[in-house]
Prior knowledge:
The chain has about 290 residues and is mainly alpha-helical. It has one domain. It contains eleven helices and two strands; from the N terminus they run ααααααββααααα. The chain has a two-stranded antiparallel ribbon with strand order 1-2. It is globular and about 55 Å long.
Amino acid sequence: MPELTVIPGLFGLGIVVGAISPTFGIGGGLLTVPALLLIYGQAFGFTGDTATATSLGVIVFTSLSGTIAYMREKRIDYKVALLFMLFAIPGSVGGGLISRWMGAKEFAVDPFQYTFAGVMIATALYKLFTILADRFRKGDKDRRTLDEPAVQKAGLARRLVDRHGTVFEYTVRLFPGTLIAFIGGFLGAMLGLGGGVIYVAILTMALGVPAVIATATSTFTILAANPFAVALRLRSIQWGWVVALAAGTVLSASIVPRFLHRVRSEWILAGFWTLAILASVRLLLKVSGVVI
């Protein structure tokens, strides 16, 4: 159990993580792990193993709260989520197994991680530029934002109406979208940059799902996939710290999705791609040996 003096700080950190995670469809490890290592690591003996494992425990509560809130908002595309998980989860398992095997064989995987992070940063910068350019383009009424793809001739036609009466009509590109979902899950697990940062990118770019639906669907996907990782890391999870953090994440993750309908989709995407850049930079620092 953490000391009583640090519980208020953990609760506050949990509130921040719980607010950001469902907003962008991520698990929250991008924030939780660095915080545990940088703020509490030296004083309380957190290592990369215990910090990442504890973050997985917190994600259980964050994704559960976010999913329940999104269910009430009626913004989860369950059919797409199931199709996505059919490919992404096996890819993640395969990537994790390959990563473990390569680690045992001491193969050098750093070039792959450098390449992946570089491509991710370049893609995120391009998407941010196009979002901002589209936002300030003339003829705002007739423009089509990047997260509202044109209807495709082939694919799975979807129509969702959320709790506020907003209608979302889009066509999911099953091929090559589902194949990319498998590859994305594989790379995310193998290169250590998985979760929502990978899922939302694939849902919006490869499958053609609107951003506001993609973040909700990603949160639901994380809830389904995370228990597999938790089961493998039970001995490393610091459950006392999980409870202190989860008290904050549950509070904010259950409230924030109720107000996201007031936020323009392109700004949600802009925030997501900014987080993707931060995650990619962290990966570069990790493989460079600068941080864990």
